[in-house]
Every structure is written in structure tokens, then in C-alpha cells.
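Q&A log
Question type: sequence-to-structure
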Amino acid sequence: MEAPSFGEAFRFWLKLGFINFGGPTGQIAIMHRELVERRRWISEARFLHALNYCMLLPGPEATQLAIYVGWLLHQTAGGLVAGVLFILPSVFALLALSWAYAAFGSVPLVAGVFVGLKAVVLAIVAHAVLRIGKRALRSWAMAALAAAAFVALLLGAPFPAVVLGAGLVGLAGWRVAPRAFPPLPSAAPGAARDSVLSDADAPPAHARPSARRAAVVLGVGAALWLAPLALLLALPGPSGVFLREGAFFSAAALVTFGGAYAVLSYLAQAAVHQYGWLSAGQMIDGLGLAETTPGPLIMVVAFVGFLAGWNLHGPLPPALAGTLGLLAAVYFTFLPSFLFVFLGAPYIEALRGRASLDAALSAITAAVVGVVLQLALFFGQHVVVSGGAVAWFPAALALAAFVAMLAFDLDVIPVVLAGAAAGLLYALAVAGKA
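Response status: OK
Response body:
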């Protein structure tokens, strides 16, 4: 296997930015399919090792995983390109949709496209449960951990407690019953390479921890945070709305553990009730837009930031204030994700291959199967149930997409495009009958 060139990786990350529908579970499934199974740029074990680290961090884990793999392949520039391109298409999409929403309201045909996309996203997530579960649930204990995680989340247990609890169970279980808690699969030294970044490889030179490098990352990160805050302080706006956005989204990015859905309740509470940036109804509409556009689900912050600027524009034109609010929300939400990876990933790479740590991470991966299943159930309730009754069109479309991917191993792009087209045709048919 030959390592991809920077240009080849750039083209892949750009493509990923346009097709990464499905929230974190769908996005992780797409990356696993493309990076591990098809392109073989990274081995199964290294992918899971990186994923488990990102699952423990606050913020969007799928974005952080893309940054991690991009950094492994092409150093800091690779991580920056992977992370920026992962979210950039959704930034432009949500900027356009937020402006259209604020200026004109909803459009029925666009809503029809979203219905088709939601159904396909549900199929992608359900397919991810099967693929990840097949690899992660390699013993009865791992299957029990997945089931326990699923039940715990249904009962309202916080996501960080589920993940950390699974890791502790795996660490203790490996010492007592190592066969029931096997470490992550790894290639033996000298084994044939089946990927560019094989698990048998030592970390690349740039991925080795260094105190000097850590100090540089912290210094640059502090400058990238403080300088934009100083600029926001100079911008006009009632009660310093832009500065409030910068401070709030910075804090939210550092403390919002628990995955996208856990973050949303905190975000909605603050944006609607504490700051009054938008109404509860507008918040729900923004979530619908974020769920049906590419990029991480936490990109709903772009909609919130735009509405905050639009509704509290002060002396600025509403569209300009909304755009500035959106950029501030996105920048301060995602900046910590880059810093977490660039700062911590070298130390995580250095720990790779230790049996006890790998057993704990393997248990976390098993718990993630339960997490993905719970999110699939949550998402399914919002896609195929409407007003207490089954919505037959999205249910049938989701089933068809799932069967197509399972039986024919279809790529994500044609499935997503077909879902959008089916939703548009359905909306046209409904409009014709009306």
C-alpha cells in the first residue's frame, strides 16, 4: 500500500464534507467504510483507537476523528484540511438556509427533499450498527456491555458516565477474564500490511509526544482564541451580542460532553431562555436544518449564531450581522476540537498497543454499539413517526435504502442523492394533489 498524496487526501476530505450526512454515527460509518474498508489508509485497530479517544473528548467526535486521521497522514496541515473541509460545506449550506429562513420562511419542496434525506440518514445509521457491531462484539461480555449501554442511555444516564464506565469495566474485566474482554485486534509485528497506517507500525515521527510541541500548540491555540475575541469586542451590536457568542460557544465547546444530542439541550436552554437569541420554535427549525445538511449535528450552532445576529443586529444590516454571528459561533465551537487532537493525539499514539489500555478501549467500542443503536432508535422515532402515526413514505424509503446498502454494498453518495430525489418527487406529488 502506498500512502496517499496530499492532493489525493485533499480531494477525499472535500468529498467527505459534502456527503457526511447522518450525525456522528452516520459520519463515523462513512469514514470507516471509506478509510478502512475501501481505501485502506488506516487499519481497523488504529481507526478504533483514534475513535475511542475522540469519544472521550468534549465536542463533535466525528469531526475530531477526521482531524486525527488527517493529522496522522499529513501532519498538522493534513489535520487542518481534514477538519476544515469536514465542516466547510455545511457552513455555506447553513448560511444560505439560515438567510432564506430568516427572510422568507420555509419552502415545501425543500422540506420534501429533507424528508428523503432524513430517511436515508436513518438507513445509514442502522447499517452502521451492523458493521460496527460485527467487529466490536467479539465476546458475550462485549455484547452485554453494548446492551447495558443501550439501556443506560434509554434510562437517562449521562453519556460520559456510560463511556467511562465501559472503559473501567473493560480494564477490570481484562485482568479477571481476558478472553471475555479481548483487546482491540492488532497485526502482529512483521505481518503483511493491509493498510497505509498498519497497526503494526510505530507512530510516525510527527506523532511522537514532545513537551516543546505541546507548549507550541497551547501558545498558538491561546492566540487563536484571544485575538478573535478582541476583534469581536470592537464590533457594534446591542449588549455586545457577538462577544457574548464568542464567550458562550467557547465555554460550550469545553464542557459539552455527551454527544450532539446531549449538547443540544444545553445549547437550547442558553440560547432561548438565557440570552433570548431566538425562540423555541426557531430552535426546533434550526435542528431540522442541521439534521438534514452535511456536517456534524452540532452545526446547529451556525443557525443559532445567524439568528442571534439577525434578531439583534443593532446598527448593522441584518444579513451582515447574521453572517458575523454565524462565523463567530462556528469558529469558537470548533477551534477546541483542533487543539484537543493536536495536543493529545501524540500521547494517545504512544499508548497504542498496551494490552490493558486496548482492552479498555475495546470495551468502549462495544458500548459505542449500544450508543449508536440508541441514537438510531431516537432518530427513527423522528423520521418514521409523525403525529403519533407511522409516516409510510419515509419508513419505506429508509427500508429500501438499508436493503440496498446491505445487499449491494452501495456507496453513500448515490444513496443520499436518490433519497433527496425521492423526497422531492414525493413533495411534488403531494403538491399536485393539493
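Response note: The beta strands are 385-386, 389-390.
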